[in-house]
Design goal:
The complex is a heterodimer. By secondary structure, chain A is of the alpha+beta class. Chain A starts with 21 loop residues before the first helix and ends with a helix. Chain B has helices at residues 18-25, 92-100, 109-121, 128-134, 146-154, 184-193, 206-213, 247-254, 259-266, 271-274, 279-285, 293-298, 395-401, 408-421, 432-451; strands at 7-9, 44-49, 58-63, 77-78, 172-174, 198-200, 220-222, 232-234, 238-242, 302-307, 310-315, 320-322, 325-326, 333-340, 346-353, 364-373, 376-385, 392-393. In chain B, the strands form six sheets. A five-stranded antiparallel β-sheet of chain B has the order 8-9-14-10-11, covered by helices on one side. In chain B, strands 15-16-17-18 form a four-stranded antiparallel β-sheet. Chain B has a three-stranded antiparallel β-sheet with strand order 3-2-4. The chains are: A alpha+beta, B alpha+beta.
Chain lengths: 771, 461
């Protein structure tokens, strides 16, 4: 299957129809879970959470809360009829903590009342007796105490120790990077409706309805077929509603099951940020051996992931970090070790990039430090280390067969007029004592597929009705990324009908079972192909009917521009649909897809985890105030591989949006815990995501031309959700470049992430103070 | 009036937020709750203001999560559901946002639509910087903003559907707060009757707590309809700024005299906040990081205080007695601020440092009034926020500069005096070490700026 040119239908692939709900977004008509009309007898829920980072729960007195007006129930772990275990992998996270509460924010009870205000009052009235216990609060404390969730994970190729020992030059360094709150605008929310036989219908703002279904069933002692989960749209997810939404939905379901009344649990922003997990902060330590050109001959990198109180998705996050600590660079001798550090803080989780950004930042910092030590341009050091050709292997053994770096890096340097601007910036810096400008280029190579092979499967359900209208359902979640429109375009293209003939329908575990989360950028690859397979099967049957009607062979039937052609004769698509119904031909199909070629050995960290790689490169220019540490991005040039894009406008939105979100992670977004283990940045007044003025005034985004996926993906497109976030590492590197201009330029720049004004100023002072 | 329809909600508790009223009681769910603290803009609605000289209503973008129903009697509100043309044709802003791909998840989108419609109506979408000003109170996590800004610029000059006529303003009937006096005398009565009562005006500070806990713990006395507090008088040598004048109204008045202060005020909260927030509220809240306070101290503003028993004036520098405490006595109110106008040759600069340029709270803020005569510092007043438990005047820095030649060396030496005078704290906005370094460095920044040698902030590029 290769990419056909834009066809004569509205909304086929390669076209740019707007987001499926764009008109509803701008009029306020798009319905999110909290907007649904309240069912009769609805109970509003609120969480009772532990104020201690670690405490024994000595007792819970629910009577004061139950005595308040309008309070229907206060449920604790003792009220859970099934297994109190909702963690996604190890089932190690209780829905409600019992015995000990392991972080400040740990839910210990859920209250249900007639109004939300009454629920909030009741939650404050529940009297929990805690005995505070010693707690591990920081990454450093966890490392010092060897508080690890699992033994270290090692990925190795060649002999790093020997290579570093024999290297002409060596450097060791360290880097800290903070976590990141997802700050989806729609907070976590679920609405659970009891039905007959203890069945439950759950509306959840989740990226993973199957996990909600499975965990709810487990919590309540039910079977999966007793629970149906439906999702129309999310007000943003970014990974934060992969496992974290499960807890919220399961608790709403618990209340509904116990009270036999509809129940809604909606986390206000502060609770959302305190209770639910975030991107992992990391500590990185590295040793590098290299030659005078900066070519890396041996590398050791240790990655310490700040996991919080339990595993959640931390093990696969760490695996992906290890799989991206090479980024775009060939490392013949490398040893990466990953440590899952357990602390008494919120359990960190999936976030766009899923460890990839942290792994990449590690090697990018290392290369930047190497370049500074050599007084060489960092982009030149990057260039000598890039994967070259199509035969080199990653440290985990996958051959980089589809390498586009040789093409993409020179192209972005040219588009950005890098060398000319470099000279101008250097001249500016010589004349400007206070403000320094910086410039940096960085490439990305991001692996596409879930690391765990069994997750790479998807289903879709397509019906053609007898009037020619089409009902489309699949296991993917629309969370803003444009997935529903992309999959509809695939079906439109397959049937050769206008996309507005296709009705997008809410995701439901009752229609497509056993789905994977919409995550890891795989949404359109997996669900697009499953929907294509379903539509193609129906088309084949319709073609047979048309062949019979026209008296030609089936391969003479052509679907084109809303009609079905046989030579000079044709039928409208809807006429053929009607004909199929009359002829008792099935117009419904469940499509299925599983990603080929992939395999992974979790014990040795080797295999081919990724069906293909997505490539990109970015050049960023910044200005830094060496007196205040304030900074600003002045220009960004982004070049991103989308394969043969299914929808260039949607992909452009993912590139720009991901880039700005990545900028936030690396600049203004700072999670701050006080010495008592309390998160103090739990709302937008204290946690600052980028605003409109923070976007570079000059941002030039290009989708790589003429680069169809060499693998057989849906219409040769590539995934786009996560990779562009990592293009923002260019901003952080440019900030380092600007800070370097404030010093002598021959030392590593001691700038961690996020590069807040405080971090930038500290780095400037460190460089200037060392004179 | 709500979206052009008459509203009677006298049965509603007056401390219900407009947001909950819209979503729970009117089923107008296009207006979203993203934070309930006035920072994300997903709840943005338009609040009508009677025009000065007849004609159509003016509409200000405001945060519905911080507005209490009891403050809205006799007003008109437009939500995202009420801005299309009567025939259902989308507003140009709505159409353009679809065309540019300005929405992804869509949850913030109604707030952006409404904020842009308000700015569009006011003719404020003149250029990119103005669009950023208009959007400073709206957060989007998906798009990266570029398509939203493009949409705003694309429709800036298009005609838009008309909204309510003035005559309809008085058809809203809502529950009353505990007290909403129409004059100062009534205020004192109300405060005497309820000694625990808290005065509110824009309620952009106290409203956060009310919004989050869904109700007020204390009786409220609303000051936003007290004419004595709404004065805004321009005199030859000073401004008299009523305590209840929204900050947004103040900006154009002081911009020519104090461009640096106008820039600061444009970074004070967001348009939604400034359309409600007042100088009196900022002083009364007495936060050590209140944005206006270092300016008032450095400019030697006087705070006019009134009570049933009379009036007194307190210099801004003497107003703050401790962490979030003022010298106001029981029964006293801030009536106005007397802000001196600049004397010839006077330089005033205020520098706010924060993690984000727009809609953030100061980590450190420094304000400087400086007069140079033949290269010598002949007058200097210095005030800082974020460096102590209150905003403070720093006499030690003034002493280190007064009478000295204005050089980079003197500026640095004075910075050393700051270090010795103040002991800032560490919190989520910045460490003590950062506050010290950055606070110190504002003096060399001031020197570089007065010396005119190249850009001194990243916004200058």
């Amino acid at each position: 299957m290769s990419g056909p040119p834009p066809s004569g239908i509205r909304g086929g692939v390669r076209q740019s129809p707007p987001h499926d709900s764009a008109r509803k977004h701008v009029t306020g008509a798009a319905v999110y879970v909290d907007d649904m009309p309240a069912p009769a007898d609805l109970l509003h829920c609120a969480l009772v959470t532990s104020p201690h980072p670690r405490a024994r729960i000595a007792g819970i007195d629910t009577a004061p809360a139950l005595a308040l007006p309008g309070v229907a129930a206060v449920l604790t772990a003792a009220d859970i009829p099934g297994a109190n275990a909702v963690g996604p992998i190890a089932h190690d996270e209780p829905a409600l903590f019992a015995g000990t509460a392991d972080y400040a924010g740990a839910p210990v009870a859920v209250v249900a009342a007639e109004t939300e205000a009454a629920a909030f009052r009741a939650a404050r009235a529940v009297d929990v007796a805690y005995e505070a216990l010693p707690a591990v609060l920081t990454l450093d404390a966890a490392i010092a105490a060897e508080s690890y969730l699992r033994p270290p994970s090692v990925m190795a190729v060649g002999d790093a120790d020997a290579a570093i020992g024999a290297a002409p030059r060596r450097l060791s360094g360290a880097l800290r990077m903070g976590g990141q709150d997802h700050f989806y605008l729609e907070g976590q929310v679920a609405l659970a409706l009891p039905r007959e036989d203890r069945d439950l219908l759950v509306y959840s703002s989740t990226q993973h309805p199957t996990e909600v279904q499975e965990a709810t069933a487990r919590l309540l002692g039910l079977k999966m077929h007793d629970v149906t989960v439906r999702v129309r749209r999310l007000g943003g997810g970014f990974g934060g509603k992969e496992s974290q939404a499960t807890i919220i939905a399961a608790l709403a379901a618990l209340v509904a099951d116990r009270t036999k009344r509809p129940a809604k649990l909606r986390l206000p922003r502060d609770a959302d940020m305190i209770v639910t997990g975030k991107r992992h902060g990391f500590l990185v330590r590295y040793d590098a051996g290299f030659d005078d050109d900066g070519k890396l001959t041996g590398v050791r990198i240790d990655l310490y992931a700040h996991c919080g109180h339990n595993a959640d998705l931390s093990p696969p996050v760490l695996t992906r970090a290890l799989c991206h600590a090479d980024n775009a660079y060939f490392l013949p001798h490398a040893r990466f070790r990953g440590f899952l550090c357990r602390t008494n803080t919120v359990s960190n989780t999936a976030f766009r990039g899923f460890g990839g950004p942290q792994g990449m930042l590690a090697i990018e910092a290392l290369l930047d430090d190497v370049a500074r030590c050599l007084s060489k341009p960092p982009e030149a050091v990057r260039a000598v280390n890039l994967y070259s050709g199509t035969a080199q292997k990653t440290p985990y053994g996958q051959v980089v067969e589809d390498n586009l770096l040789d093409r993409i890096v020179p192209e972005v340097m040219r588009q950005a007029e890098f060398d000319t601007r470099r000279a101008g910036i250097d001249a500016f810096n010589r004349a400007s004592p206070v403000i320094k400008r910086g410039l940096a280029m960085m490439p990305i190579k991001f692996g596409i597929s879930f690391n765990l092979p069994q997750m790479n499967q998807a289903g879709a359900l397509v019906h053609v009705y007898s009037d020619g209208s089409v009902h489309l359902n699949h296991g993917g979640i629309e969370m803003g990324q444009g997935l529903f429109m992309k999959v509809a375009q695939v079906v439109a293209e397959t049937f050769q009908i206008d996309v507005d003939r296709i009705k997008l329908s809410e995701t439901s575990t009752g229609k497509v079972p056993n789905t994977s989360p919409t995550a890891a950028s795989t949404g359109s690859d997996l669900n697009g192909m499953a929907a294509h397979n379903a539509a193609a099967a129906i088309r084949t049957r319709m073609a047979a009917m048309a062949a019979e009607h026209f008296g030609v062979a089936a391969d003479a039937i052509v679907f084109r521009e809303n009609r079905v052609h046989a030579g000079n004769e044709s039928l409208a698509f809807e006429e053929l649909a009607e004909m199929c119904w009359r002829g008792r031909v099935s117009l419904s199909e469940a499509g299925f897809y599983r990603t080929p070629k992939i395999h992974w050995d979790m014990d040795t960290n080797t295999g081919r985890p990724f069906f293909y790689f997505s490539y990109g490169a970015a050049v960023a220019e910044v200005a830094v105030d060496t007196l205040s540490g304030e900074s600003r991005v002045l220009r960004a040039d982004l070049l991103q591989d989308c394969g043969a894009s299914l929808n260039p406008a949607v992909d452009l939105g993912q590139i720009e949006g991901g880039f700005v979100q990545g900028m936030g992670w690396l600049t203004c977004e700072e999670l701050y815990w006080d010495d008592d283990g309390h998160l103090r940045t739990h709302g937008p007044s204290t946690y600052k995501i980028p605003g409109s003025r923070d976007v570079p005034p000059d941002i030039r985004v290009h989708i790589l031309d003429d680069a169809p996926n060499r693998e057989d993906t849906i219409f040769r497109s590539k995934a786009i959700g996560e990779p562009p976030l990592m293009l923002a590492i260019s901003v952080w590197l440019a900030l380092r470049d600007a800070v370097a201009a404030a010093g002598d330029g021959d030392r590593p720049v001691p700038l961690d992430a996020p590069a807040t004004p405080a971090a930038v100023l500290a780095a400037v002072e460190a460089l200037q103070g060392g004179d | 009036m709500l979206n052009g329809e008459t509203v009677d909600a006298r049965d509603m508790p007056p401390t219900v937020t407009l947001l909950d009223y819209l979503r729970l009681h009117r089923r107008l769910t296009g207006t979203k709750e993203g934070c309930a603290e006035g920072d994300c803009g997903a709840c943005t609605v338009l609040l009508a203001r009677p025009p000065a000289n007849g004609g159509d209503l003016s509409y200000d973008a405001v945060n519905a999560c911080l507005l209490l129903l009891g403050q809205l009697d006799g007003t008109a509100i437009r939500t995202v559901e009420g801005i299309a043309a009567p025939d259902g044709a989308p507003h140009p802003v709505q159409r353009a946002l679809v065309e540019t791909g300005g929405s992804q998840c869509g949850y913030c989108t109604p707030g952006f639509v409404v904020a842009l419609v308000g700015a569009h109506r006011a003719g404020r979408l003149t250029d990119t910087a103005a669009v950023h000003d208009a959007l400073a109170g709206n957060l989007c996590r998906c798009t990266g903003y570029r398509p939203i800004v493009d949409a705003a610029l694309a429709v800036a000059n298009e005609a838009a559907p008309r909204m309510d006529a003035v005559a309809e303003l008085d058809r809203t009937r809502l529950g009353q707060l505990d007290s909403r006096p129409g004059g100062l005398a009534d205020v004192f009565d109300a405060l005497a009757a309820e000694p625990d009562a808290r005065p509110i005006c824009g309620a952009t500070d106290l409203g956060v707590a009310i919004s989050k806990q869904k109700g007020a713990d204390v009786p409220l006395v609303a000051l936003d309809r007290v004419p004595e507090l709404q004065r805004l008088d321009i005199h030859d040598d000073h401004y008299l700024i009523g305590a209840a004048v929204p900050l947004e109204r103040l900006i154009p008045v002081i911009a020519a005299d104090y461009p640096s202060l106008a820039v600061l005020f444009r970074r004070f909260g967001s348009p939604q906040i400034r359309n409600r927030a007042t100088l009196g509220g900022n002083i009364g809240t007495a936060s050590p990081i209140g944005d206006s306070l270092p300016a008032l101290i450095a400019l030697d503003a006087g705070i006019g205080i009134v009570s049933r028993h009379g009036r007194r004036a307190v210099p801004a520098a003497d107003m703050f007695s401790g962490y979030r405490r003022t010298v106001l006595q029981a029964g006293e109110l801030i009536e106005h601020v007397i802000l001196p106008r600049p004397r010839p040759g006077e330089i005033f600069r205020i520098y706010k440092l924060s993690k984000r340029y727009d809609q953030d709270i100061s980590t450190v803020c420094g304000a400087f009034r400086l007069t140079l005569t033949d290269g010598m510092v002949t007058d200097i007043r210095v005030a800082y926020g974020g460096m102590a438990a209150t905003p403070v005047r720093v006499a030690a820095v003034e002493d280190a500069l007064r009478g000295k030649a204005w050089t980079l060396e003197t500026a640095r030496a004075a910075a050393g005096a700051l270090d010795r005078a103040l002991s800032p704290m560490t919190d989520m906005r910045g460490s003590a070490a950062y506050r010290r370094s950055a606070g110190r460095n504002l003096l060399p920044r001031l020197w570089h700026e007065t010396a005119g040698a190249g850009p001194v902030t990243v916004q200058d590029l």
